[in-house]
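Lecture notes, part 5. Sequence design as translation. It can be helpful to think of inverse folding as translation between two languages: the language of shapes and the language of residues. The source text, in structure tokens, appears below.
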């Protein structure tokens, strides 16, 4: 990724650095021509000549330094800016009084190139700092704050800050593009692996499940395990990684509730309910969802998932280890509905009331109590000999 990001950055920023190289050379020639045209008014022209010799050697020798962000170091930027500020402060020593009052300095507009280098390297904050130093040097050189000084300083400052801000925005776009390219490459690789796994491993696991079930005995147990691994692998290939979970013995609720870790999302933002429910998928539990995110507030998503876990625990406890269950997730405009259905013999009439009287409050608290706390309802439908169905309704507007 780092290599790709450097390539993208080079393609975007390189024209700016090339333009800065040309700007430094052209402004150097302009400053020399300006000095030569007013040579006769300088009281000490040898000061200007010496400065321009140093400035010319520095500008030409450091052209590679301004060819890119990697070569343009902080040490170079500091020396470069010091040379520009020094030229401004040296101007009164070399200049005739008319040249000084006319607003001319030895480096002239070459100074802006030093400030722009800071902008390209560090963004608008570095540009603002360099502009302030140049502005202070101009005030010291002039000995007063005049309209022309303010005009020149503001012009350089605004231009440098604008360019620095544009560079920061460009770099943020480069990082986003590099991340998108990485995700695209990872997605293509996952799709390729998914095809290979589907054509080999998943088919073998499905065959082992069928043959083991047909043979019975220990082979049936092996087939059951193969079926569970097939479902888990299909979930992994599809990108629906099962979220880490842990079993929590909640004796007060009369059930073993599977606590699912909170989704990776910003606290306070809606969470997708699907990963919390697909973690229950196995050879005996089938999960069906809309295929699009089903968003609920974090607390509501956790409580609803815990209620589903309690319902599945009741299936395992009262129907048996081999009982099958189905989870259906529906995203309606006004509410979210989760239905948990099993293929057991159903609940005899009056059994729930009897269980509550005996202090076994799994349905009353683990399911209905949780839904009541988040403003929802739980409806239990059971017909003897036809299994049990639990419908969990969570209104969206009340969250």
């Amino acid at each position: 990724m780092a290599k790709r990001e450097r390539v993208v950055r080079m393609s975007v920023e390189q024209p700016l650095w090339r333009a800065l190289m040309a700007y430094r050379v052209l402004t150097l020639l302009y400053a020399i021509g300006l000095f030569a045209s007013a040579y006769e008014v300088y009281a000490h022209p040898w000061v200007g000549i010496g400065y321009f010799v140093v400035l010319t050697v520095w500008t030409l020798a450091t052209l590679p330094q301004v060819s890119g962000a990697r070569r343009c170091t902080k040490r170079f930027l500091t020396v470069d800016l010091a040379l520009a500020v020094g030229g401004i402060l040296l101007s009164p020593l070399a200049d005739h009084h008319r040249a000084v009052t006319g607003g001319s300095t030895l480096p002239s507009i070459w100074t802006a190139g030093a400030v722009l280098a800071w902008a390209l390297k560090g963004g608008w904050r570095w540009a603002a700092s360099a502009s302030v130093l140049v502005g202070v040097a101009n005030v010291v050189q002039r000995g007063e704050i005049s309209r022309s000084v303010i005009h020149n300083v503001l012009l350089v400052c605004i231009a440098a800050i604008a360019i620095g801000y544009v560079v920061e925005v460009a770099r943020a776009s480069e990082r986003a593009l590099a991340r998108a390219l990485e995700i695209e490459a990872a997605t293509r690789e996952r799709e390729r692996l998914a095809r290979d796994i589907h054509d080999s491993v998943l088919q073998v696991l499905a065959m082992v499940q069928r043959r083991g079930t047909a043979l019975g005995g220990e082979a049936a147990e092996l087939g059951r395990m193969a079926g569970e691994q097939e479902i888990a692998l299909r979930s992994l290939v599809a990108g629906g990684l099962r979220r880490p979970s842990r079993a929590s013995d909640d004796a007060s609720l009369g059930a073993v509730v599977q606590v699912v870790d909170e989704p990776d999302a910003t606290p306070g933002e809606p969470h997708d309910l699907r990963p919390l429910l697909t973690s229950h998928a196995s050879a005996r539990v089938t999960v069906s969802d809309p295929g699009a995110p089903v968003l609920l507030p974090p607390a509501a998503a956790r409580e609803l998932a815990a209620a589903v876990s309690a319902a599945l625990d009741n299936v395992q406890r009262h129907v048996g280890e081999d009982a099958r269950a189905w989870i259906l997730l529906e995203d309606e405009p006004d509410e979210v509905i989760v239905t948990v259905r099993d293929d057991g013999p159903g609940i005899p009439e009056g059994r729930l009331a009897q269980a509550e009287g005996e202090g076994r409050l799994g349905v009353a608290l683990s399911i209905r109590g949780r839904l009541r706390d988040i403003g929802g309802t739980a409806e239990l439908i059971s017909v003897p000999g036809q299994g049990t169905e639990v419908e969990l309704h969570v209104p969206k507007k009340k969250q």
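The translated text above is only one of many valid answers, since several sequences can fold into similar shapes. The CA atoms of residues 271 and 295 lie 5 Å apart.
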